[in-house]
From TrEMBL:
The keyword Transmembrane applies. It comes from the Bacteria. Signal peptide: none annotated. The chain crosses the membrane at residues 78-97, 104-123, 149-174, 186-206, 233-252, 272-293, 327-345. This is EpsG family protein. Coiled coil: none annotated. It comes from Streptococcus ruminicola.
Length: 365
């Protein structure tokens, strides 16, 4: 029952890209599915953390510990705690989407396809990413100055105190307001630097200074990943990147044509899409350190929401009729989101524990 409601609502959200009614109705459905799920991956782990946060201090960042301590002090039941956390996560996601595109319902529909189901399982990562989004919003909407950079860094650091891997979103700064050609040069230097830092275990040293010895557990170094699992992660990230970069590049060419024709709106959209494309390329550098820090593959997944926003800027105007028809481009982005779901949910063995558990274990349906 819930599965069919979800599919139908996702379809309607994509069909009516600018509908406020569909946007908020679909947002409520996403919250309802997650908030009243009685059994999904990691739920038992979070229950144990919530009621024994002192015992899990060595495996949990300070920020998330403080949040659990606060709710425990108010004697908030675990289920209510999750409802509030899910509401905050999806609320910030919705706020970010609503403020950065006119086709907000379409973007939320794409997110519903991927990566909603796994974001609702990896709660710490998703909660930390909400603060990253607040920081990114400062860069996307304001004329960049020292104040915006400071705000961005502040929110990324807050996010990393909830899940340390969010610190890698500082790479976003390196891709800001530069040409595509110049960005590739920055990527090469960044990739080499990341490998050197990871090989020298400097991430562990930094993490120990920020959140103590628990850093090894948090970054996944003590998790028993097999070589085949790591290979699968790397392959999934590489193919996902190629799919994402192909769709965002088409949007880049689309907005570039409008910009060259003198359209102010086209120029603004092109700057936005260029920033998103640069960030996708920059975040891709983290694939090089997956063998040393397996859980870092999640970084690219969280960047997918930005990619959806960039794709939403695609449209055909009077000065821009030489590119792909809008219908086919929208259809392409939907197909890409389905392929991403297959690569990172089905192929990595997360289908039953994430998507199906959300759809079949609801308290009311």
């Amino acid at each position: 029952m819930l599965f069919f409601i979800f599919i139908l609502s996702t379809f309607l959200s994509l069909l009516f890209p600018k509908s406020k009614f569909m946007f908020y109705s679909y947002l409520f459905l996403l919250w309802f599915i997650a908030a009243f799920c009685t059994q999904c991956a990691d739920r038992d782990i979070y229950i144990a953390r919530y009621f024994n946060y002192v015992g899990f201090q060595k495996q949990t960042e300070y920020g998330f510990n403080i949040i659990m301590l606060f709710f425990n002090s108010l004697k908030v039941p675990f289920d209510y705690f999750l409802m509030i956390i899910y509401g905050f996560i999806l609320g910030i996601y919705a706020w970010f989407i609503r403020n950065n595109t006119e086709r907000f319902s379409f973007v939320l529909g794409l997110y519903g396809i991927f990566s909603y189901c796994i974001d609702m399982v990896q709660i710490r990562n998703s909660l930390g990413f909400t603060f990253v989004l607040i920081g990114i919003h400062q860069i996307l909407k304001n004329k960049i100055g020292k104040e915006e950079y400071v705000k961005f860094c502040f929110f990324v650091i807050i996010g990393s105190l909830i899940h340390f891997s969010n610190i890698f979103f500082l790479l976003f700064l390196l891709s800001n307001r530069v040409s595509i050609k110049k960005n590739f040069k920055v990527v090469i230097y960044t990739a080499l630097l990341l490998i050197i830092i990871a090989k020298a275990n400097l991430f562990q040293v930094l993490g120990e200074q920020v959140i103590g010895k628990k850093i090894d557990d948090i970054l996944g170094r003590t998790i028993d990943y097999s070589s085949n699992q790591i290979k699968s992660m790397i392959i999934a990230v590489i193919i996902s990147f190629l799919l994402l970069i192909s769709t965002i590049y088409i949007a880049y060419r689309n907005t570039k044509i409008a910009s060259n024709e003198g359209s102010n709106e086209g120029k603004e959209k092109n700057e936005f899409v260029t920033l998103i494309m640069n960030s996708q390329i920059m975040l891709f550098t983290t694939v090089l350190i997956i063998p040393m820090m397996p859980d870092i593959y999640r970084i690219q997944r969280y960047g997918i929401l930005l990619n959806y926003l960039g794709c939403s800027k695609y449209e055909i105007s009077d000065v821009n009729k030489k590119v792909m028809n809008s219908f086919f481009y929208n259809f392409l982005t939907i197909i890409i989101s389905v392929l991403l779901f297959y690569l990172q949910i089905q192929k990595l063995g997360n289908f039953e524990s994430t998507f199906m558990s959300l759809m079949t274990n609801n308290k009311f349906l």
